[in-house]
């Protein structure tokens, strides 16, 4: 069922203005043909291909003469960020991929990216794996990918998990919403963009190899000292607010990561002439005088170790792209007990409460007049829009209780009394939920509103209460239709497979953030919310038969 849904979304994405590929070049005409060939060989063809020439002197137009369907945008040299922005203004596709002229796309790059977009509605961008290749496009190793965590912005603060720009497919509208690339940044402009987009939008990744990064000795990233300086400047531009403790922690982790990565880089063999390598090392000593000697010592130790030991260390450190059957990395979720056995209260706000509180906030105007709430008056107090009298229903004589009894017992609740009943996460305790709903209908005044939430995929509390049910959306719909009548209620389903997993493990909203909780997948409902109205004149009356 879900595979069919993703396939439908993929087909919709292809049909909905498709993908534009923008190839940027500055004196890379010798590589440009390879890049264009890889774009035109896609399993899902792009709807637009545009080459933007940023002031080249090697005549890229001569290369494009072989490709009549490819447009050329020639501009005076402004830098890669400004060139990409200029090209972005010339395309209209819904999605866009940026490919540097010295790199190439894999055959299924666009198809894989669109499938990931379809599986993650609302994403600002998604990305896949890439490979390093030599100047002749011969692989220099296996696929590389660093997976993004649920909080994509924090992941990117810690390091550029995307790694290669051509591995990304952007939602063009969201890219424009953040202002595109920052043209004043000569290096790391892609990292800056990723950070700004991840701060506002969902980021997701997939394991398919989508691009090859060509190493030819003239790559911009080969100047390690300069790259470190600009990575740190980009981090400074994207520093979290002082109140964001977790964000600041990630930001500091990122500073340490980049310093360690680039000081180590200058001591590894990359094929550059010896004089160039030593110039880089001297320059790095000025940028990071404390870490550079430590990096040199680390590389010396690795070089004196036997090759099998070095290979073992590198295999352990290198992330796997696609786990083999039986070799899936469950990480912190490889446990027989949940992270928090108390629904997530021990860590913060439980996942189901995110949906419940958003629902009540949406309908806070209904919380007025005489209001009844089950258990405590907590939500009534938060969403009060003019309460004249507050009642609390409990089976026990707890503090604040005004009505003691069981909501399955008709004698417990007075008829035609309440303007609003807040009934959150309680129907599962009724062995006969249809009877409980009839009693709630009966206790409402004509025109009164029931705000109810029901658990779907959920942990079960069997300690203090008799928990009988979890509800599927169709069951909930039928219960309310039989009680309140067709058209007298609005039912919504909240959650997705990720949210359900987090809730079962007792993770909190603060662990993941709303961007991963907002997308709704009816196949994995975490919570069901219902606003039901007791009509003043017409409407189905509940039957008296149990």
From TrEMBL:
EC numbers: 2.4.-.-
Domain of life: Bacteria
One Pfam family it belongs to: Methyltransf_11
An example Gene Ontology molecular-function term: glycosyltransferase activity
Domain Glycosyltransferase 2-like: 21-127
InterPro entries (UniProt xref): Glyco_trans_2-like (IPR001173), Glycosyltransf_2 (IPR050834), Methyltransf_11 (IPR013216), Nucleotide-diphossugar_trans (IPR029044), SAM-dependent_MTases_sf (IPR029063)
Record's keyword terms, sorted: Glycosyltransferase, Transferase
Domain annotation Methyltransferase type: ranges: 401-451
Gene3D superfamilies for the chain: Spore Coat Polysaccharide Biosynthesis Protein SpsA, Chain A, Vaccinia Virus protein VP39
Name the record gives this protein: Glycosyltransferase
UniProt organism field: Novosphingobium cyanobacteriorum
């Amino acid at each position: 069922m879900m595979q069919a849904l993703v396939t439908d979304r993929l087909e919709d994405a292809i049909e909905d203005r498709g993908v534009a590929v923008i190839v940027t070049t500055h004196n890379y005409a010798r590589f440009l043909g390879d890049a264009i060939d890889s774009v035109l060989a896609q399993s899902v063809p792009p709807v637009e291909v545009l080459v933007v020439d940023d002031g080249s002197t090697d005549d890229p137009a001569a290369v494009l003469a072989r490709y009549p369907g490819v447009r050329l945008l020639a501009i005076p040299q402004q830098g890669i960020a400004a060139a990409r922005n200029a090209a972005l203004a010339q395309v209209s596709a819904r999605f866009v991929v940026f490919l540097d002229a010295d790199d190439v796309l894999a055959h299924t790059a666009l198809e894989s990216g669109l499938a990931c977009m379809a599986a993650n509605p609302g994403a600002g961008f998604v990305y896949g794996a890439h490979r390093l290749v030599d100047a002749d496009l011969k692989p220099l190793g296996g696929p590389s990918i660093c997976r993004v965590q649920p909080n994509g912005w924090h992941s990117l603060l810690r390091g550029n998990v995307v790694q290669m720009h051509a591995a990304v497919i952007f939602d063009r509208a969201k890219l424009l919403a953040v202002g595109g690339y920052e043209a004043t940044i000569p290096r790391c402009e892609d990292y800056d963009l990723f950070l700004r987009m991840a701060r506002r939008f969902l980021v997701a990744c997939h394991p398919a190899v989508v691009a090859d990064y060509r190493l030819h000795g003239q790559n911009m990233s080969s100047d390690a000292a300069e790259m470190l300086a600009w990575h740190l400047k980009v981090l400074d531009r994207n520093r979290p607010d002082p109140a964001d403790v977790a964000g600041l922690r990630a930001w500091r982790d990122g500073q340490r990561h980049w310093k360690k990565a680039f000081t180590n880089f200058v001591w590894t063999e990359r094929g550059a002439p010896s004089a160039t390598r030593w110039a880089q090392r001297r320059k790095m000593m000025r940028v990071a005088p404390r870490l550079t000697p430590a990096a040199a010592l680390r590389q010396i130790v690795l070089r004196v170790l036997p090759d099998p030991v070095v290979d073992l260390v590198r295999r352990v450190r290198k992330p796997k792209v696609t786990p083999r059957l039986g070799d899936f990395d469950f990480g912190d979720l490889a446990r027989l007990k949940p992270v928090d056995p108390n629904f997530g209260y021990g860590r913060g706000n439980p996942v189901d409460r995110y949906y419940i509180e958003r629902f009540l906030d949406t309908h806070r105007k209904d919380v007025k007049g005489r209001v009844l709430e089950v258990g405590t008056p907590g939500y009534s107090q938060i969403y009060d829009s003019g309460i004249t009298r507050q009642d609390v229903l409990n089976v026990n004589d707890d503090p604040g209780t005004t009505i003691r009894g069981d909501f399955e017992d008709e004698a417990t609740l007075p008829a035609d009394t309440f303007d609003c009943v807040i009934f959150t996460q309680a129907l599962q305790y009724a062995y006969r939920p249809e009877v409980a709903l009839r009693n709630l209908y009966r206790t409402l005044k004509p025109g009164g509103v029931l705000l109810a939430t029901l658990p779907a995929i959920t942990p079960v509390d069997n300690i203090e209460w008799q928990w009988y049910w979890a509800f599927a959306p169709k069951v909930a719909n039928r219960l309310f239709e039989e009680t309140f009548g067709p058209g007298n209620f609005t039912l919504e389903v909240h959650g997705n497979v990720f949210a359900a997993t987090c809730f079962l493990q007792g993770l909190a909203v603060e662990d993941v953030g709303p961007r991963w909780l907002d997308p709704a997948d009816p196949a994995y409902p975490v919570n069901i919310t219902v606003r039901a109205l007791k009509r003043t004149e017409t409407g189905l009356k509940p039957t008296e038969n149990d």
